[in-house]
Each structure stands twice: as structure tokens, then as C-alpha cells.
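Module 6 notes. Inverse folding takes a fixed backbone as the condition and produces residue identities as the prediction. Think of it as a translation problem where the source language is geometry and the target language is the twenty amino acids. Below is one complete input and output pair. Work through it position by position during the lab.
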């Protein structure tokens, strides 16, 4: 199995996730507004479920945004780790190459 990822993959993903957080909050607000004409149209269990949804809509929005925020934080941490690992690998390779004796590897006849 080969794992190959571009240098900007995680930062691009983070930017996309940030936009998704904003979009999700907007979509939930639109859903609540779209459901307003249904208020008072339900009885019994349907009314109870609708009222519970409406009462908890802000909490649902907050929880979902919090979860996406945590995902964004994880993506940012992975981006930092991959970037610093890439830089460290490059520095180690240069340090090792500068210490190598390439002259000794030449074959002379």
C-alpha cells in the first residue's frame, strides 16, 4: 500500500471544512425557518416531536458546529505534524549527506 499526499492537501481540506461549518449553521437555520409554517399543525406525538426539535434546534446547531470545529482542529494538527515531519526529514537528509564521504565511494583504477 502506498500513501501519497500533496503538501497542501490538509490545509486545503481545512479551508473546505471551515466553509462547511458556516454552511451547516446556515442550513439548520433555514430548516427551522422552513418548518415554521408547520407549527400548530400537529397533535399528539407529532406535536411533541416537532416542539422538541424546535426547542433543541439551537443546541443541535451548537453541537454539530462544535463537532466540526473539533474535526477542523484535528486537521490543523495533522497539517502541522506532516509539515514539520517533512521539514525534519529534509533537514536530516541534508545533514547525513553533508557528513558522507562521497570521495571514498569513487572507484579509481
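Target side of the pair, the amino acids:
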Amino acid at each position: 500500500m502506498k500513501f501519497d499526499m500533496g503538501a497542501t492537501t490538509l490545509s486545503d481540506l481545512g479551508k473546505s471544512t471551515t466553509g462547511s461549518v458556516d454552511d451547516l449553521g446556515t442550513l439548520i437555520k433555514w430548516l427551522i425557518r422552513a418548518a415554521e409554517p408547520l407549527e400548530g399543525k400537529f397533535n399528539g406525538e407529532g406535536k411533541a416531536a416537532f416542539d422538541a426539535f424546535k426547542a433543541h434546534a439551537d443546541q443541535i446547531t451548537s453541537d454539530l458546529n462544535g463537532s466540526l470545529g473539533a474535526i477542523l482542529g484535528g486537521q490543523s494538527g495533522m497539517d502541522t505534524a506532516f509539515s514539520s515531519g517533512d521539514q525534519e526529514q529534509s533537514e536530516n537528509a541534508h545533514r547525513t549527506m553533508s557528513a558522507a564521504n562521497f570521495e571514498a565511494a569513487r572507484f579509481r583504477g
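Reference fact for the lab report: The CA atoms of residues 8 and 74 lie 15 Å apart.
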